Amino acid sequence: MLERHCKEVGRDFGEIRITAMSGGIAYESPAELDAYMQRIAAQGIDRSLLLQLVSCNGSHAQCAEFLSQWKKLGVDGIIFYFNDVATYGDGQSQPEIFKRDVLPHV
Question: Which long-range contacts (CB under 8 A, 24 or more apart) does 44-53 make?
Protein backbone atom coordinates (compact mmCIF):
# COMPACT_ATOMS: atom_id res chain seq x y z
CA MET A 1 0.00 0.00 0.00
CA LEU A 2 2.82 2.41 0.90
CA GLU A 3 4.65 1.64 -2.32
CA ARG A 4 1.51 2.33 -4.35
CA HIS A 5 0.94 5.61 -2.51
CA CYS A 6 4.54 6.65 -3.17
CA LYS A 7 4.01 6.08 -6.90
CA GLU A 8 0.83 8.16 -6.79
CA VAL A 9 2.60 11.15 -5.21
CA GLY A 10 5.90 10.76 -7.08
CA ARG A 11 8.01 9.66 -4.09
CA ASP A 12 10.82 7.12 -4.45
CA PHE A 13 9.77 4.17 -2.32
CA GLY A 14 13.41 3.06 -2.12
CA GLU A 15 14.24 6.13 -0.02
CA ILE A 16 11.96 5.01 2.80
CA ARG A 17 13.30 2.91 5.65
CA ILE A 18 10.55 0.57 6.85
CA THR A 19 10.52 -0.10 10.59
CA ALA A 20 8.24 -1.88 13.03
CA MET A 21 8.00 -1.81 16.80
CA SER A 22 7.92 -4.73 19.21
CA GLY A 23 8.67 -5.76 22.73
CA GLY A 24 11.11 -8.58 23.31
CA ILE A 25 11.67 -11.30 25.88
CA ALA A 26 14.09 -14.08 24.98
CA TYR A 27 14.58 -16.95 27.40
CA GLU A 28 15.72 -20.54 27.15
CA SER A 29 14.04 -22.00 30.22
CA PRO A 30 11.26 -21.33 32.71
CA ALA A 31 13.97 -20.40 35.23
CA GLU A 32 15.29 -17.67 32.89
CA LEU A 33 11.77 -16.31 32.45
CA ASP A 34 11.32 -16.36 36.24
CA ALA A 35 14.59 -14.41 36.65
CA TYR A 36 13.42 -11.87 34.08
CA MET A 37 10.11 -11.41 35.86
CA GLN A 38 12.04 -10.89 39.11
CA ARG A 39 14.11 -8.17 37.38
CA ILE A 40 10.97 -6.24 36.47
CA ALA A 41 8.88 -7.10 39.55
CA ALA A 42 8.84 -3.49 40.77
CA GLN A 43 6.90 -2.54 37.62
CA GLY A 44 3.94 -4.62 38.82
CA ILE A 45 3.35 -6.21 35.42
CA ASP A 46 1.16 -9.29 35.27
CA ARG A 47 3.21 -12.15 33.80
CA SER A 48 0.50 -13.69 31.62
CA LEU A 49 -0.60 -10.32 30.29
CA LEU A 50 2.98 -9.34 29.49
CA LEU A 51 3.55 -12.56 27.55
CA GLN A 52 0.35 -11.92 25.59
CA LEU A 53 1.32 -8.35 24.73
CA VAL A 54 5.00 -8.86 23.85
CA SER A 55 4.88 -10.25 20.33
CA CYS A 56 8.53 -11.33 20.25
CA ASN A 57 8.95 -13.76 23.12
CA GLY A 58 10.24 -17.27 23.54
CA SER A 59 13.53 -19.02 22.93
CA HIS A 60 16.44 -17.30 21.21
CA ALA A 61 15.62 -19.30 18.06
CA GLN A 62 11.93 -18.34 18.21
CA CYS A 63 12.83 -14.65 18.56
CA ALA A 64 15.29 -14.92 15.65
CA GLU A 65 12.54 -16.51 13.54
CA PHE A 66 10.13 -13.71 14.51
CA LEU A 67 12.67 -11.14 13.31
CA SER A 68 13.44 -13.13 10.15
CA GLN A 69 9.76 -13.09 9.21
CA TRP A 70 9.69 -9.30 9.45
CA LYS A 71 12.90 -9.12 7.41
CA LYS A 72 11.31 -11.28 4.68
CA LEU A 73 8.41 -8.82 4.57
CA GLY A 74 10.85 -6.01 3.78
CA VAL A 75 11.17 -4.41 7.20
CA ASP A 76 14.57 -2.73 7.54
CA GLY A 77 14.61 -2.62 11.31
CA ILE A 78 12.68 -3.33 14.49
CA ILE A 79 12.48 -0.74 17.24
CA PHE A 80 12.37 -2.73 20.47
CA TYR A 81 11.18 -1.76 23.89
CA PHE A 82 12.51 -3.80 26.77
CA ASN A 83 11.04 -3.67 30.26
CA ASP A 84 14.44 -4.31 31.85
CA VAL A 85 16.55 -1.77 29.96
CA ALA A 86 17.43 -0.06 33.26
CA THR A 87 19.41 -3.15 34.26
CA TYR A 88 21.63 -3.03 31.17
CA GLY A 89 25.26 -3.81 31.85
CA ASP A 90 25.25 -7.10 33.73
CA GLY A 91 24.88 -9.29 30.63
CA GLN A 92 21.43 -10.51 31.65
CA SER A 93 19.20 -7.70 30.35
CA GLN A 94 17.05 -8.32 27.30
CA PRO A 95 18.92 -5.76 25.15
CA GLU A 96 22.14 -7.64 25.86
CA ILE A 97 20.53 -11.05 25.28
CA PHE A 98 19.05 -9.94 21.95
CA LYS A 99 22.35 -8.42 20.83
CA ARG A 100 24.41 -11.45 21.84
CA ASP A 101 22.08 -14.43 21.35
CA VAL A 102 19.30 -13.46 18.91
CA LEU A 103 20.42 -10.88 16.35
CA PRO A 104 23.44 -12.84 15.05
CA HIS A 105 20.95 -15.49 13.84
CA VAL A 106 18.75 -13.16 11.80
Answer: 45/83, 50/25, 50/83, 51/25, 53/23
